[in-house]
Design goal:
This protein is α/β, with parallel strands linked by helices. It has three domains: 2-137 and 206-250 and 427-442, Rossmann fold; 151-201, no CATH class; 255-418, Glycogen Phosphorylase B (Rossmann fold, 3-Layer(aba) Sandwich). It has 14 helices and 14 strands. Strands 3-4-2-1-5-6-7-8 form an eight-stranded mixed β-sheet, with helices on both faces. The protein has a six-stranded parallel β-sheet with strand order 11-10-9-12-13-14, with helices on both faces.
Length: 444
């Protein structure tokens, strides 16, 4: 079988959960099939839309450079004809039997129609809400959860991003930077005018996304919650219950071969992941600042990435810290995850958006480490309160403090909850599930 994966990036440059999952899945299927990957990279030092082909652990990869330097209107952020043309030529060369899309941000949604026009079966895994929400996480600029996409609401979010671009004097919008110099009354008028235009462009995005989603043969979500949300919110986008399946992701458990916890006299809490506002690290730091015990530490593993409207987030986090037992450990390679978890007793996942199926929770469970998580989305689906971890009210640092203190006052709870953690689905098991589905679609 000739399988093509499409994804927004790959390690070692991109190490988010979607990218890592795609890499491990492709590597496993490559043992028995001919597997190719088409992806995006974002390197400002290289020519825009330059194509590179290389081998990643024996996997043939073709990547196109897109750092958004040549994006001249909003539609190009999701439908890019230049990238579509590159992909069409690549598809002609590879001639895959099936295409499995993991994410298209930074690429082009029209890759779907290119495949369907050639009668190539297309599968799509929804790792977040990007098809429904141009911000991707159903999170408003003030970091509160959005109740669902509506063109006028989405336009407000879009306009907040436009204002951020104007403030930063982005190359793509330099022609509009005069807005920062005109009188406030006239600026308000311009903002209102552009908001109406923003509604139009969001309506066009919704219409286009519906067309693309209706061209997909099968849609997967890694959590039941995410499937339910997509059905609830995605009617306008052509997502119906019969076209979307729950299929949990598999994990590369080989990283944990011979895993052993390192003993410690302190209770070690940990945060692992990208440092952006939606991950809720500010909630965690606020809670941990209140911890009085010198026998409890918090280790923060990860690097900060750009996030709309929060350019100083990392600096703000460091300024928040008053507890000397909070430590920023810096970035890490996923190959080091077992080593990192060997020095963590309780993982904390304080995300303030509807996380789908966080990689870090699965990794903690492989290592039999209990998790404190926000009580929403896929997090609450994986973490069962007082069974394999604790849940706290999303965004509530007071409640998170109580849950952290619960472990400090009852250290035996770590071992008790650890014993309840069930085995995690492996990438090998997941690959076999998908092989059967691929064969089913090809045979239609």
């Amino acid at each position: 079988m000739r399988i093509l994966f499409v994804v927004q990036g790959l390690p070692p440059q991109s190490t988010g959960g979607t990218e890592l999952y795609t890499y491990y899945l492709a590597r496993e299927l490559h043992r028995r099939h001919e597997v190719y990957i088409f992806c995006r990279r974002a390197d400002p030092s290289q020519e825009e839309y330059a194509v590179q082909s290389y081998l990643l652990d024996g996997l043939p990869v073709t990547s196109v450079n897109n750092s958004f330097r040549k994006v001249f209107d909003f539609s190009m952020t999701y439908k890019n004809d230049i990238i579509a043309g590159i992909f069409a030529r690549f598809l002609e060369q590879v001639q895959p039997d099936i295409v499995h899309i993991q994410h298209l941000i930074g690429l082009s949604t029209s890759l779907i129609s290119i495949c369907s026009d050639k009668n190539i079966p297309v599968l799509l895994t929804l790792h977040d809400y990007w098809f429904l929400c141009q911000r991707g996480q159903l999170l408003k600029p003030d970091l509160t959860i959005c109740s669902g996409p509506r063109d006028w609401k989405c336009a407000m979010c879009l306009w907040s991003q436009i204002k951020a671009f104007l403030t930063q004097q982005s190359t793509a919008v330099k022609r509009r930077t005069y807005l920062g110099k005109i009188p406030m009354a006239l600026r308000r008028w311009c903002v209102q005018l552009n908001r109406w235009k923003a509604i139009e462009v969001m309506h066009a995005r919704t219409r286009h996304m519906r067309e693309m989603l209706e061209s997909v043969d099968m849609i997967f979500t890694p959590s039941r919650f995410h499937r339910d949300q997509c059905i609830k919110l995605g009617g306008r986008f052509g997502i119906s219950p019969d076209r979307i399946r729950f299929l949990s992701n598999g994990m590369n458990v080989d990283l944990f071969a011979n895993f052993r916890k390192k003993p410690s006299s302190t209770l070690r809490f940990g945060f692992i992941g990208t440092i952006i506002p939606s991950k809720g690290l500010h909630v965690l730091i606020k809670a941990f600042n209140r911890i009085q015990s010198n026998r409890a530490t918090l280790r923060i593993h990860g690097i900060a990435l750009p996030y709309d409207g929060y350019n100083n987030y990392m600096q703000d986090l460091r300024a928040m810290v008053v507890n000397p037992n909070i430590h920023f450990m810096g970035g890490y390679n996923n190959a080091q995850i077992a080593q990192i978890l060997s020095e963590i007793d309780v993982l904390i996942v304080p995300s303030i958006w509807y996380e789908n199926a966080p990689l870090t929770i699965h990794e903690a469970f492989i290592a039999k480490i209990p998790v404190i998580a926000s009580n929403i989305g896929g997090m609450a689906e994986l973490v069962h309160h007082m069974e394999n971890g604790l849940l706290f009210e999303v965004g509530n640092s007071d409640d998170l403090y109580v849950k952290i203190q619960t472990f400090i006052e009852n250290p035996s709870l770590v071992e008790a909850l650890s014993g309840n953690i069930k085995p995690v689905k492996t990438i090998e098991e997941n690959a076999k599930e998908l092989e059967a589905i691929y064969n089913e679609l090809i045979a239609r």
